[in-house]
Every structure is written in structure tokens, then in C-alpha cells.
Amino acid sequence: MSAALLYTTPRAPEGTLSALEPGSWQQLARLVRMPNLLIMALCLLLVRACLLLPEAPWQQVLAPAFGVLTLAALSVGAAGYIINDYYDVKIDAINRPGRLVVGRAVNRRHAMLAHLLLSGLGVLLSGYLAPLLGVVNLGSALLLWGYSVRFKRVALVGNVSIATLTAALVLLPELQARTGNSAVWGYALAAFLLTMVREIVKDVEDMRGDAQHDCRTLPIVWGVARTKWTVGFFLLCLGLLVAGASYNALATHRWVLGGWLLGLVLLPLAGLGYRLRRADRKRDFTALSAWCKWIMLAGVLSMLVIRY
Questions:
Q1: What does the alpha-carbon distance between residue 296 and residue 292 come to, in Å, rounded to a whole number?
Q2: Residue 288 located in a structural domain
Q3: Which residues form the domain of 267?
Q4: Of the ranges 11-20, 46-55, 96-105, 282-291, which one carries the lowest mean pLDDT score?
């Protein structure tokens, strides 16, 4: 999240992309967080292919209905990133001045229009597939709007909102396929816990800009030291979940999965906890946030070896 430093570079003319600023398409990709959208698509694909339909041919895995669901989910996700930047222009001018897009490459009116169109597209497409999917994506779109407008400024409420949305993303393919697979719920819980860790860490990272705009995030309300204990609680819960999954994998002779979870997820989680204890500067929490992303990617990719 991010004040008076807002327009430190020339703005684009109203209603246009900046004619002078190079890399406008790169700016637009940054606006919708293209790498994050690609990870979301990968997560949806791996959940369907590796957890829900491991024996199915690729023609069934990549069914048109699943493609529509993926497009709907990515549309809602992109809309969420846009509306977040729309309301965070002033705060981001302090926390991330070099990464501003709204108000520079894209004016605020067009950003709002893009948010509405993408949210509507996502809800309509998923509703076409099934009413339940439409309700879930409508709820996600509304929660993303509420997060951008208010929730992220309230201690823990914004963190829980984003963590819930992340878990819901993991569950979307199961809500469509209805296989009854229980493993997907374990991954959804892990996604919830790791997202809680990362979102609270980001709140510490963004304290300066948040405090100047009357945000009441956890580190501002409780202080950094107590916030680190809260992060540690969620980190411990996640560690116990991964340790249990690792033990179960090894007990059922799935050596590759057990080794993957131990070496690429649990060990980095322990390292994250160690670095969290020593973190006391903005750059430390920036590094922890990036570390969370790599752990999440390793967790997602573990679906590839879940049977081994």
C-alpha cells in the first residue's frame, strides 16, 4: 500500500497512455501484476491436472470449460490489482515511488473502467459455467473492492481478506469438477497461512506510507515486535501443516513428495522464521516478502510430484 510525493514525474495527458514514457505495455503488465497472474494460472492448472484429474487425458484436463474458469479467475484477479492501485496512488508514492502506474501510464478514470469491465467479465463467465462459481467470483470481486477501499487499513481484516481469496483460488477447480479430493483443501489451508505471513510482513514493510494515511495495520497498532510474534504464530501453524504432510508422504512411500516438502518448503520456512527474528529494517521485510513468494511457488510445484 502507499502521499504528497505522488506526481514526481510528468503525468500522461488525460485519457491516454503516456506518449513520452517508454515501455507502456510493460507498465500495463505491472499494473495487472502479470507474473502473479501467470502463477495463478499455473496453480489452477496444477490443481486440476495433478490433484483432481491425475489419470485423465490432457484433452479432459484442458477442457474448454476449465479455460473459461481460468479466464474468469484471472480477470477478477487483474481487476483486483487495478482497483488496489487506484486507491493506493498516494500511499504507493511513498512506499513504492518507482512502481506507480495509475496516474502515470494510465489515468485514474480508465483504471476504474478497466476494473469494472474485468470484474464484470470474470463474474459473467464463471456464472455461465455454474451459479456457484459465479457467486464465488462475485464475492471475490466484492471482497477485493472492499479490501482496496477499507479492509486493508484495518488490522488483520485486510490480511484475512487476501488470504481467504488465495485459498478460494485453489478451491475453484474443485468447485467446478466436484471430485471430492481432500488434498486440495490441504493446499488451500497452506495457501491461506502463507498468505497471512506474507501480507503481515508487507504491512511492516509499508509502515511509513500507511502511517501517513491513517491506516491501522497490525504493525502500526501493535508495533513491530508484537507483529513479528503474530507472523511467527502463522508460520508455526504452516510449518506444522507441512511437517505433517511430509510425514504422511514418507509414511506412504512417496519419497519424492516427502523430500520436496522437507527440502524446498519446510527448510525454507525455518529459514524464514530465523530471518524474521532478526529483521528490523524495511529491506529485511522486503526480502522476507520475496522469500514467501518463492516458498509459495515451491508449494504449488509440489503438486507435480504428489503421487511419487
A1: 6
A2: yes
A3: 24-305
A4: 11-20
